[in-house]
Amino acid sequence: MNDSTRESPRRAVGALLAGKLDDGGYMEYGYRGLKRAQSAFDLSLTVIDQVPPEPARLLHALRELAQSGARLVIAHGGQNDGAAREVADAYPDLQFVVTQGSVHGGNLASYEVRQEQSAFLAGVAAARLSKSGVVGHVSGIRVRPGLLGRAAFAAGVAAANSKVRLLTTFCGTQDDAAVASRVVAAQIAAGADLIFTMLNAALPGAIAACRAHGVRLIGNVRDWGSIHPDVFAGSAMADVGLGVYAACRDWVAGERLSGIKHFGVESAEAVRLNLSPLAPNTLVAELELWRARLAVGTQHLAATYDGAEFSA
Questions:
Q1: Within this chain, do residues 135 and 229 fall inside the same structural domain, yes or no?
Q2: Are 279 and 129 in contact (CB under 8 A)?
Q3: Do 190 and 244 reside in the same domain of the chain?
Q4: pLDDT value for 114
Q5: What is the pLDDT of residues 247-257, one digit of tens each?
Q6: Are 83 and 75 in contact (CB under 8 A)?
Q7: DSSP code, position 79
Q8: Pair 263, 270: CB distance under 8 Å
């Protein structure tokens, strides 16, 4: 646990980030949103990180935060849904938020940046850019945001070109680079020439495998193309830290946090697809049409994927 000073108890916030704060992706961006809120709203923070995504461990960490003096407790990631619901019921005088969650109650809210919208756009781009007619998807653990992202990516691929074959794998870990490298290499051996990843600290393994075989990636959360332009054809940008920041902002403003708040492609700050500068203008124009449909709700995204799964 990392404790800050407690000079402003009324604005004491506890946060659970069940991963590595320097993972380069999901957890790091959640932490950035938290630090941004601390600076903007003079918050006192208690942070717990590097907790395995196991229900009992998450429950213990959230109880610890509820007993820390925090008045607002934020659990970053949909894997916290069950634990947050239980702890919120036990501490009705505190406010609880799950980012990328799907739970709500009298003192419990979810703030969700719609990653699946950027995943859909990534699917369209992958299908258009693939030369082999085979694209891949690699994620880690089967939590709701990852499952929604996979379903949306598959829908984007099918919408752009129904003849493109999709290889999809949940490799069981967000942070093990060796596992990610092995899975990505297996998809490449099966014909994939463009792979969409929803990984955290495991991403360097995927990058290494793609670089070794001359295959392109589409990343997520941040703009990976600006860091590894030789590997990334694009990035499905979804600033998951925005949910953390917005929850703190609304709480400081005196709102009673309940229900589910969404942030999507209607705000480029929240969700967008960044393409390589080498992407054809026709693809850029097509993606803008799909983005507009997502923004107004005329493009429906299925919540489940019922196709085959790839075994690495």
A1: yes
A2: yes
A3: no
A4: 95
A5: 999 999 999 99
A6: yes
A7: G
A8: yes
HEC readout, 100-168: CCCCCECCEEEEEECHHHHHHHHHHHHHHHCCCCEEEEEECCCCHHHHHHHHHHHHHHHHHCCCCEEEE
Identify whether 135 is part of a domain.
yes
Phi then psi for residue 159, to 5 deg, are -65, -35
CATH number reported for the structural domain that contains residue 158 in this entry = 3.40.50.2300
26: helix, strand or coil: helix
Structural domain count of the chain: 2
Task: Kindly report, residue by residue over 172-194, the tens digit of the pLDDT.
Answer: 999 899 999 999 999 999 999 99
- Residue written as tokens 């429906």? 300
The residues of the chain scoring below 50 in pLDDT are: 3-8
In a domain, 305, yes or no: no
Whether residue 104 is found in the same domain as residue 230: no
**Do residue 157 and residue 277 come from a single domain?**
yes
Q: What is the largest CA-CA distance in the chain?
A: 60
Place of tokens 């949103």: 33
Residue 306 lies in a domain: no
